[in-house]
Amino acid sequence: MTKTVFGAIALAVGLGWTMAATAQETVKVGVILPYSGPFADAANQLDAGIKLYMAQNGDEVAGKTIEIIRKDTGGPSPDVARRLAQELVVRDGVDILAGFALTPEALGAAEISKEAQKLMVVMNAATSIVTEQSPYAVRTSVTIPQLNYTFGKWAFEEGGVTQAYTLVADYGPGHDAESSFSKGFTEAGGKILGSDRTPVANPDFSAFVQRVKDSNPEAVYIFVPGGGQPAAIGKALVDRGLAPPDTKIFAQGELTHPEALESMGDTAKGIITTYHYTLERDDPLNAEFVAAYREANGDRAPDLFSIGGYDGMHLIYEALKKTGGDTSGDALVEAAKGMAWQSPRGPISIDPETRDIVQTVYIRQVEEVDGSLQNVILQEIPEVKDPLHGAN
Amino acid sequence: MASGEAVLSTRGLSKRFGSLEVTRDVSIDLPRGARHALIGPNGAGKTTLINLIAGDLKPDAGHVLLKGDDITGMATAARVRRGLTRTFQINTLFPALTPLEAVTLAVCEREGIATQFWRNLATHREAIDESHAILGQLALGDVATRPTRELAYGQQRLLEMALALATKPKVLLLDEPAAGVPKDESAMLFSVVAALPEEISVLFIEHDMDIVFAFASRIIVLAGGGVLIEDVPSVVASDPRVREVYLGSARHG
Amino acid sequence: MNANLVIVLFDGFAFGMLLFVLSVGLSVTLGLMNFINLAHGAFGMLGGYVAVTAMRQLGFPFLLALPTAFLAAALVSVVFERTLFRRLYRAGELNQVLFTIGLVFVSAAAATYVFGTGQQPIVLPDWLRGSVVVGELRFGVYRIFLIAMALAITALLVFGLERTRLGARIRAAVDNQRVAQGLGINVDRIFAVTFALGSGLAGLGGALAVEIVGLDPSFGFHYLVYVLIVVAVGGLGSVTGSFVGAALLGIGDVAGKYFVPEIGSFLIYLMLVAILLVRPLGLFGKR
Amino acid sequence: MSNTTTTAIDPAAWIRRQSRWSALEVAFWLAALLPFYFFPTYLMLASQIAVAALFAISVDLILGYAGIVTLGHAMFFGIGAYTAGLLSAKAGWGEPISGLLIAGAMAGAVGFVVSFLIVRVQHLALIMVTLGLGLLTYELANAMSWLTGGTDGLRGIDIWPIFGLFRFDLWGYTAYSYTLAVLFLGFLAARRIVNSSFGLALRGIRENVRRMPAIGSPYRRHLQAIYTISAAIAGLAGGLLTQTTNTVALESLSFQRSADVVVMLILGGTGRLYGAVLGALVFLLVRDRLSGVNPQYWYFWIGLMLMVVVLFMPKGILGGLTRLAGRTKG
Q1: For residue B145, what are the domain limits?
Q2: Residue D271 lies in domain
Q3: Using one digit for the tens of pLDDT, what is the confidence trace for D60-80?
Q4: Same domain, B41 and B96
Q5: So what's the ipTM on this one?
Q6: Chain C CB within 8 Å of residue D144 CB
Q7: Domain stops at, among B150, B168, B186
Q8: pTM confidence score
Q9: Between 20 and 30 A from B22 (CA), which of A389, B214, B224, C229?
Q10: Residue D116's closest chain C neighbor by CA?
């Protein structure tokens, strides 16, 4: 009985409420990220990208002031992300939802974006389907198939490898990486000798690496989340003699981020990775970005999260300029569709069909340059789209 | 004594802890209405024997029979439900519960209504009244609604007994009911024992020989884990072996 | 296949020894002092950060960074023990749980504040890198080093607790505080020393772990589960138990992942539950 | 039976008094309605607090009343959450109330099976067995990502309007009405349980498990019963979370969630039901406020709060408040 009464009251009050109570002179951007917990570093780096962009471009666009409201999800919690998105919309009256380091959190919030008709800028979450969950979702990061399908093809065609073993972390992104690399590789004519999945919080890789060694592949393809695992798995491979040039190591770029390179040392030489952002890429825009970023963050180098946040803010700024300050979701998403610009990572654009990012995929190899280890670009594959959109 | 009359019997009960044989081939019989005392010097294995009979320890050999049924493999709680209940030498109570609650709990368990999670406790009126009556019998009526931990030590010893009585025992094993209680109060405790209904058989451990001789109809003397002698008090009192056992160890009474 | 078996056993044993060094300190404090210190992993994290900082900022060699980590964790823990933990010895286990969880939160935030959220790589000296090749087998040098360290710690602890005056005092203080006090043993100080020892070992374990599992502010929480598993399986207060338990879990984990990767992630938990159902006190537990 | 009783108390009346509603309790539940009128933008938070409170009550029933310390209760929360989610996403059944009941029943059934293991162990082994089983379930759900959606979460959950009338709105009016109603019913059930003869038996187990067999108690069966009930209530809480957010992911089964709920419960105070509600309220409210102010370091303050509570209110916030109230009165 109480329930009926509550429900009736709830509906009555809810319908009578309007959401137009936001100030006209500010554009509020609600940023939802896992600032605490195991993914705090991703949030931290992404947030630094946002801050850098705003420091460089001011907080005024189209006559309005940009205000960022930050919310912490505390880890991969879709229910919290969804609630925060809802609260940002109904309580704080935000115009734009942004952030989203993790796929489940982006999926949780997408429904709110759809229902409240707010632009949702996905600055990292890298599963293809994310942008399909809300017509207002736009992605400025990368998708895993985008990088790895391309990489799989390259591995056979250019990398000179005919058979390989895959070893990925046992969670959504790992599964995506495994399937898209394998797809690209086998479509081009290669053969997958075997695939293993490692627990996400795996402290020790020796058993899996030994399994790889047993099948004696020409190459091993690795996908692990960033953080402590890249160095650990890299060292485990080399300890067992699975190292270039005898066995090629292919991976997504997390494996050779600067801290991992420092930890692995010379053993990292020859690892080939696929990525959309290369720290050392010789380009004035990139050099300026990296210098400013290091300056603002105690010499910490930017990574994929940073560039996702940075370009995400660029998209928000440019879209607002285009709409002349109109913050409605429809206007902003229209403005975002087809937008193209030069990012520190290279030329990128937003596919008007899928609202997903189109960008250059870089194939890099770890080499020693001037006494330090770097990811040296072997090949640039321009204008790559996510191969899964529309595929199912 | 014919075992046919015995309510409780043990047959060849033995138990060892490592190399130490604490119970050695003990066969005793407790007839209906018995008031038997279990005595012996420290370390004679009195409490161990109680533990074995009550089911808190498993014997290495031998049997426990209750009304002729072999209950050796039966769990403690099941023995209690069949009418074989013990008390503890060291208070084993529920510190935060009031005596009223504790005894009511025992009554509810006996009646099999302790699993009724859907009924408010207050609706079990009969159980509550019965437990209140038991507490009244033991002069605990005034403190029935105070937490057990606030009770005086002597009152806690009475509550030990009240919990056992609430199970409606047919055989009651009392492990030093007056342990640690001043002499005048311990007489009071034993007057409760004396006032128990005729049909309850009692086996009690007690060190105070005055009390033993006042209350026991027969005495079982344990020494080194085995039965030394079992007889009426007057015979036991004059038995030289008993004196011998008690000499050398601390004197009681 | 035999060669692989050897290498899997070796890797598993080395991983187990890492778990051992991380957890043996908790086994000592939990088993001997009955204090549930869920912040044990936080002292491990402290040791890790101290070692990394000592090497990068102060240029300490690795072998000097290890005792530095031990000392730092031991010293900090004594401060905590004297000022805070000692009030909790009689406060009940739930309060100990809540308090030390709170400490884990605080330490993670402090680590984030001081060191940032990023990974802290450790750069080993050359002689600890690479592997030793025996026939067709390759043994990681660092893993050999880990095993050697763990064996040395075990020997020292077993010897120390069972053969020295201090060990006798610790055991006396634990068995019966009042009697120990009556014998003129300063129980307070014994507890402080024991706690420092336990936490120092955690710090040392943290420093050793960085190379294998990395280091960031979530370390304290993340490895808590593993540490608890080793302590429970080994049995409270037993150094030998922790050693055997850790070795068993390490080998089981690695072998399981190698031979049946499909259930690789369950195996350690399955072993935990199975062992505790058969031996609730752990393999070597007495109480 | 005896006329030696000299006291005037009516024992049954005294027992009844122990479970009587106080004005404070009524006020508390009325206050739970306040968000509808005064804080309508906090309804989703209020709804998630209600879910956490129900979960904490389920843990209080075993931890606070029966002395079973658990670090794996998210297992049942998650089973309830996935049951409710899968009913909608895979079976196409989005009716919330029947879905919720099925979620609770599912968790209760698993709880019953698990209870056979739980009653075999005590102390550290008990904690570790609950923890191990919880982590096993988590890994199992991850391995069965074809069913559960793995770390990305289950997609395609669509919960129908309650009674076919009240759809789950953006503001959370329906969500909070629903969760509050279920919380209240769950609380009433828990309250009845702890005030029953069975609840008395549980307190007996907590106070002195050694005595229980000596009064003829089949206490292991009592433990199994309460563990099953607790699991079912945890499942209800999980189901509620799924239904009010349309999401469920592995996180609902995580060690973090198991640990959080225990922290909330101890924070509020164990063994008094309101401690569970209050703990969830304080923990989540403080966390929400702090993380709003300082998204990166809020847990520093949460940690500090936990430590301070232990040092100054060893019986939790509720215990501290009770003592404070007693002092001002006296």
Answers
A1: 91-168
A2: 38-296
A3: 999 999 989 999 999 999 999
A4: no
A5: 0.89
A6: no
A7: B168
A8: 0.91
A9: B214
A10: C277
